């Protein structure tokens, strides 16, 4: 019923427990998930998981904190990997000025290059944005990233920026942040984002929703995100689950 559109069960926190995490998700009405690879090791694991499990898909790209290592060789490798089965988007890509692991211009160059690859391959993009909103918006707009569709992953901004990103063809993906008491702006986004542009995710193992905040997140917890969205919109949980899954299926060009 639910589609976790952004999870990292391919990282060390889940090593040896991937099958159990997938089963717990299925037991909690999560019928599909997209496992996001962001460097060489996590991309490899994402591809393995999508190959081995039904309705587990891959999103692969180069994280902005890894931008300093983005080379022609990495790009060529990504292009070949992105042509494989069960790849539903390219990412997560974007900008991260918080960690500052690469100069801004280096991050921006890697970001633009990946958007262009995604457009050549007709793939949606999954966007990481941390303390770089104006530059992320500018690049997405200039590169016409919305032409192939995209996701503002882990959205934690206000409705002003929600509208700006919607206007350039992006979807808004909410995760555990929407359940936090100190996130009124994200709760307002949950109320006002167009229903056909809304996605839900976990970003596991990070950003666990209430009542599991502070613990390891996992795909089964996406139900708490959907429940909070339903509460904010005054809708039944089942309707939110159905609509957000349909939105993901449409964006990722999957069969119903």
Summarize this structure as a short list of keywords or feature phrases.
eight-stranded parallel sheet; TIM Barrel; alpha/beta; single chain; 256 residues
User: Could you report the average pLDDT, rounded to the nearest whole number?
Assistant: 97
Largest β sheet strand count, sense and barrel closure: 8 strands, parallel
- The CATH topology: TIM Barrel
Q: Secondary-structure element order, as H and E? A: EHEHEHEHEHEHEHEHH
Shape: globular
Which residue ranges are poorly predicted, with pLDDT under 50 across at least 5 consecutive positions?
none
Tell me, what is the CATH class? Alpha Beta
Strand content is 15-25%
Helix content: 40-55%
What would you note in describing this structure?
41% of the residues lie in helices and 18% in strands. The chain has helices at residues 18-27, 40-52, 72-82, 104-120, 133-142, 159-167, 184-192, 222-233, 237-251; strands spanning 2-7, 30-37, 56-60, 87-96, 125-130, 150-152, 170-174, 198-200. The protein has an eight-stranded parallel sheet with strand order 1-2-3-4-5-6-7-8. The termini are close together. The chain has nine helices and eight strands. It is globular. Helix 4 (104-120) packs parallel to helix 5 and helix 8 crosses helix 9. The longest helix is centred in the middle third of the chain and has 17 residues, at 104-120. The chain is an alpha/beta fold. The chain has a single domain (2-251), classed as TIM Barrel (Alpha-Beta Barrel), CATH 3.20.20. The model has no long low-confidence stretch (mean pLDDT 97). Helix 4 (104-120) links the parallel strand 4 and strand 5 (125-130).
